[in-house]
Design a protein that fits this description.
Blueprint: H1 3-9, E1 16-17, H2 23-33, E2 45-51, H3 53-69, H4 75-83, E3 90-97, H5 106-126, E4 130-134, H6 142-147, E5 154-165
Antiparallel strand pairs: 1-5, 2-3, 3-5, 4-5
Helix pairs in contact: 2-5, 3-4
């Protein structure tokens, strides 16, 4: 697959199954991540790999975080929270590692971490691996971030679910001309 084909045809894969990516495939994804635009060469990101029993522990962390906010959790919601990480055989947690720098503000470092995460997703697609970048309130929850061992200067930018796609998703048609305007608009 050439680069242009990848960029124009990549889609998310919400339904994933075994096997998880191999160690070599993950290393290829991380090498691609290291090519993200990075003002100052700070590499303000890292990834946390979660597989096997770790997926169950992540589900328990999701449940604990939700229970801390509300004790009115029915069995259906409880099971959904516990099983959320099991939607894929591997999750890479993309983490922004913010550093104080006189020329590179934290927001730019978070964007760089997002670019690194996007490189992982694109590389997965190029390797024939399904990927789904997930987010949501739990990535900002202090119980989740503490449970995953994040430091005060770190934040989650996404949970990248990886595995074999259960079905091929059709590439959506987008009117690219609607994505840009011209300035000044005279």
């Amino acid at each position: 697959m050439d680069a242009l084909e990848l960029l124009l045809t990549r889609t998310s894969s919400p339904a994933l199954t075994e096997p998880a990516p191999t160690t070599e495939q993950v290393q290829t994804m991380l090498t691609a991540a290291s090519r993200a635009p990075d003002h100052g060469g700070l590499k303000p990101y890292r990834f946390l790999e979660i597989t096997g029993e770790g997926l169950d522990r992540l589900g328990e962390l999701y449940l604990s975080a939700t229970e801390a906010k509300s004790n009115d959790i029915d069995e259906t919601k409880r099971n959904r929270l516990l099983n959320m990480p099991r939607r894929a055989p591997m999750i890479l947690v993309a983490i922004a590692v913010k550093k104080d720098h006189p020329k590179v503000p934290h927001v730019e470092q978070v964007i760089t971490a997002g670019c690194a995460a996007q490189a992982v997703v694109q590389t997965a697609f190029a390797l024939g691996i399904g990927a789904m970048w997930r987010s949501g309130d739990l990535m900002f929850d202090p119980i989740v971030t503490s449970g995953l061992g994040l430091n005060a200067h770190e934040e989650i930018v996404g949970f990248i679910y990886l595995g074999q796609p259960l079905k091929v998703k059709e590439v959506p048609v987008v009117d690219a001309s609607s994505l840009m305007s011209v300035w000044p608009n005279e």
